[in-house]
């Protein structure tokens, strides 16, 4: 979800994704990017220049996941607030 969330606004390069997705190793990030690309959730664009440049972005299918992730985040915040209310009683 962190990779998809990072790509929700714009395309990102590998280094930017590594910074955005906290706690992920380089190997795991590579595996996840390949997996998401194989599922047509992200696209990988290679620019043939020196130094090589690769950008990742969401496909139209990938963009449909953003509202789902937003709902999960909103639910989490609401649940935390509910937990605080129970603790204060």
Give a brief rundown of this model.
The chain has helices at 2-6, 14-20, 26-38, 60-63, 66-88, and strands at 12-13, 42-47, 53-58. With 89 residues, it is α+β, with helices and mostly antiparallel strands.
Protein model, in words:
With 89 residues, the chain is α+β, with helices and mostly antiparallel strands. The chain has one domain: Orthogonal Bundle (Arc Repressor Mutant, subunit A). It has helices at 2-6, 14-20, 26-38, 60-63, 66-88; strands at residues 12-13, 42-47, 53-58. A three-stranded antiparallel beta sheet has the order 1-3-2. It is elongated and about 55 Å long. The relative contact order is 0.17. The mean pLDDT is 92.
Describe the secondary structure blueprint for this structure:
Elements: H1 2-6, E1 12-13, H2 14-20, H3 26-38, E2 42-47, E3 53-58, H4 60-63, H5 66-88
Antiparallel strand pairs: 1-3, 2-3
């Amino acid at each position: 979800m962190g990779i998809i969330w990072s790509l929700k606004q714009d395309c990102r390069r590998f280094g930017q994704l590594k910074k955005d997705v906290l706690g992920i190793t380089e190997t795991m990030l590579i595996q996840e990017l390949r997996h998401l690309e194989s599922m047509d959730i992200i696209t990988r664009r290679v620019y043939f220049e020196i130094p090589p440049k690769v950008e990742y972005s969401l496909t139209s299918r990938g963009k449909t996941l953003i509202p789902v992730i937003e709902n999960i985040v909103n639910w989490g915040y609401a649940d935390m607030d509910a937990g605080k209310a129970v603790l204060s009683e």
